[in-house]
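Example record used in the benchmark description.
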Amino acid sequence: MKQNLNPAVAKVLKRLHYPLDVILLCVRWYVAYPLSLRHLEQMMAERGISVDHSTVHRWALKLLPVLEKAFRRCKRAVGKSWRMDETYIRVRGEWKYLYRAVDKAGNTIDFLLRAHRDKVAARRIFEKAIAHNGEPETVTIDKSGSNLAALQALNAERETPIRIR
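Model output (structure tokens):
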């Protein structure tokens, strides 16, 4: 199975001594569900696999950046019309701004969590989304001055400006 993997993923897995399906299962469960590393250690022990919680943590640290990069290459294309908005949410007891870009179908293009609602944060989400998904033709925004200022600053640097609605 290792011969069919992405070369970058295969390189990371080269020196790991556990079966590939065990490694990927632990990392998937760690990311997909609100489980602690010690819970994963116990779950694997129930299945007869002795693995330490620190080993699972090392697997996650090694594999997740490589897998994320590989998955982004296989990601579906997004539309050319985006909607951009931000909301105020509580994260670990502190209020933060969640910037989110979605396409016409309502699928999330990208998101960014920031402490401040300003032009710098708005520009960062646009730059990040464009870098990962390509340039949109149209962006629909609310009356947020920071989003408008960020898009105008981006348009000043481009040959073909992004249309703002």
